[in-house]
């Protein structure tokens, strides 16, 4: 494989501050994998990598057919049936890591060295084909549709070991830029109604790869969780999320307060570990955050993740979810990070039993105020042991 210079591409919409913006310090390179899937490299502001990257020379089978959607008429929710996901890799050894840079002995998904890489999932739940389907509205019996949209993998590091919490602040800043870039581009896809960056961390959560990574789902519908939020906003009023942030920022459950962001344990936390964080400004998604907001976020997010890991003697499994406004709905919906973990003690996990799993009626095991005290102490220990670098 001979090196080839890839063309740097700007983040979409790099214009006025009221729209999606980009950081010119983060270089973006585009390429295609051997089966046509898109691959993007995001290079750190302080990268040591040149723009020359090897091309993917593998002989790959055709991409799987787009999955199907089926509607549950009792809830109105759409279920994706993605049979190709049954064949995905399950906890491979380090020398066969599919997210590491390719070597002669490891024909992985990424052809060359990288800082942060994003590529289309080989076995997606949504996409690759499909158009906007207005028939997803309403409720009926045995309704089916194409599972349009897109699924992407976000690799936080070329190294097999580590986590997002172990990255440098510069690397965290690059990851945030990748989330913002992909949110802007995927939101412009006609079939996409909502973009969801997230990270599953730890075997207790169900991860199939140890390599530090997250995912982005671009849904062809507005998710049930967001539908519930929209219902609450219609009932309360468009200031709901702003009022929640104001109450929490001036209350007893704050974990970290910055100039642009506040992280806190919510009043009605469900999980043993549950954190929410919102920007002080009313922005719908990561693509609309300012460069100053992203710079501060890179430090606060690292402190939160390192604090969660310092809570116990071993790293804590979690789900980190970026709740963003639907593509065509912004009024009252503010960007929010939610981190949850089922770990309720050093050697105990919370499993969803009958009330939570069947009825959606939650019972919290730990009082929210106890969470706050324990998490503050853990963040302080992490700050002492591994201070976050200045931006």
Description:
- Residues 1-20 have a biased composition (Low complexity).
- The protein is an alpha+beta fold and 391 residues long.
- It is built from 6 helices and 18 strands.
- The chain has helices at residues 169-187, 224-236, 240-249, 291-310, 354-359, 368-385; strands spanning 3-5, 27-32, 38-43, 52-54, 68-71, 78-81, 116-120, 144-146, 150-155, 194-201, 213-219, 254-257, 261-264, 273-279, 318-323, 336-341, 343-345, 348-349.
- Strands 2-3-7-9-11-10-15-16-14-13-12 form an 11-stranded antiparallel β-sheet, sandwiched between helices. The chain has a 3-stranded antiparallel β-sheet with strand order 6-5-8, with no helix packed on it.
- A hairpin with a 2-residue loop joins strand 17 (343-345) and strand 18.
Helicity range: 10-25%
Query: In the CATH hierarchy, what is the class of the largest domain?
Result: Alpha Beta
Give the total of beta strands.
Answer: 18
Strand residue percentage: 15-25%
Instruction: Round the mean pLDDT to the nearest integer and report it.
Output: 92
Which terms would index this structure?
three-stranded antiparallel beta sheet, 6 helices, alpha+beta, 391 residues, globular, 22% helix, HIT family, subunit A, 2 domains, eleven-stranded antiparallel beta sheet
Short description:
This protein is of the alpha+beta class.
Would you spell out the secondary-structure blueprint of this structure?
Layout: E1 3-5, E2 27-32, E3 38-43, E4 52-54, E5 68-71, E6 78-81, E7 116-120, E8 144-146, E9 150-155, H1 169-187, E10 194-201, E11 213-219, H2 224-236, H3 240-249, E12 254-257, E13 261-264, E14 273-279, H4 291-310, E15 318-323, E16 336-341, E17 343-345, E18 348-349, H5 354-359, H6 368-385
Antiparallel strand pairs: 1-4, 2-3, 3-7, 5-6, 5-8, 7-9, 9-11, 10-11, 10-15, 12-13, 13-14, 14-16, 15-16, 17-18
Helix pairs in contact: 1-4, 4-6
């Amino acid at each position: 494989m001979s090196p080839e210079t890839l063309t740097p591409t700007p983040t979409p919409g790099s214009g006025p501050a009221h729209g999606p913006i980009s950081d010119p310090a983060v270089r973006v390179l585009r390429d295609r994998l051997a089966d046509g899937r898109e691959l993007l490299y995001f290079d750190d502001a302080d990268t040591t990598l040149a723009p020359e990257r090897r091309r993917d020379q593998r002989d790959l089978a055709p991409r799987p057919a787009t999955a199907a959607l089926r509607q549950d008429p009792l809830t109105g929710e759409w279920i994706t049936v993605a049979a190709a996901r049954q064949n995905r890799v399950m906890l491979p050894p380090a020398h066969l890591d599919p997210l590491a840079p390719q070597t002669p002995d490891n024909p992985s998904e990424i052809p060359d060295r990288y800082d942060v890489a994003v590529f289309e999932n080989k076995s997606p739940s949504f996409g690759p084909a499909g158009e906007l389907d207005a028939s997803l509205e309403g409720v009926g019996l045995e309704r089916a549709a194409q599972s349009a949209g897109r699924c992407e993998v976000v690799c936080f590091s070329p190294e097999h070991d580590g986590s997002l919490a172990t990255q440098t602040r510069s690397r965290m800043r690059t990851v945030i830029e990748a989330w913002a870039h992909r949110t802007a581009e995927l939101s412009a896809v006609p079939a996409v109604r909502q973009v969801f960056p997230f990270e599953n961390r730890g075997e207790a959560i169900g991860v199939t790869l140890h390599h530090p990574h997250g995912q982005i789902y671009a849904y062809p519908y507005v998710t049930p969780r967001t539908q519930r939020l929209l219902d609450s906003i219609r009932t309360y009023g468009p200031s709901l999320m702003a009022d929640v942030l104001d109450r929490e920022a001036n209350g007893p459950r704050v974990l970290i307060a910055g100039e642009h962001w506040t992280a806190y344990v919510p009043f009605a936390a469900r999980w043993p570990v549950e954190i929410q964080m919102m920007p002080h400004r009313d922005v719908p998604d990561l693509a609309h955050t300012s460069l100053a907001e992203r710079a501060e976020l890179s430090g606060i997010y690292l402190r939160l993740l390192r604090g969660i890991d310092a809570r116990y003697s071993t790293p804590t499994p979690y789900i980190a979810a970026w709740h963003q406004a639907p593509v065509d709905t912004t009024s009252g919906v503010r960007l929010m990070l939610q981190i949850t973990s089922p770990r309720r003690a050093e050697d105990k996990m919370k499993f969803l039993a009958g009330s939570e799993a069947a009825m959606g009626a939650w019972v919290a095991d730990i009082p929210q105020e106890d969470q706050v005290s324990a998490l503050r102490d853990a963040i302080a220990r992490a700050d002492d042991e591994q201070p976050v670098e200045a931006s």
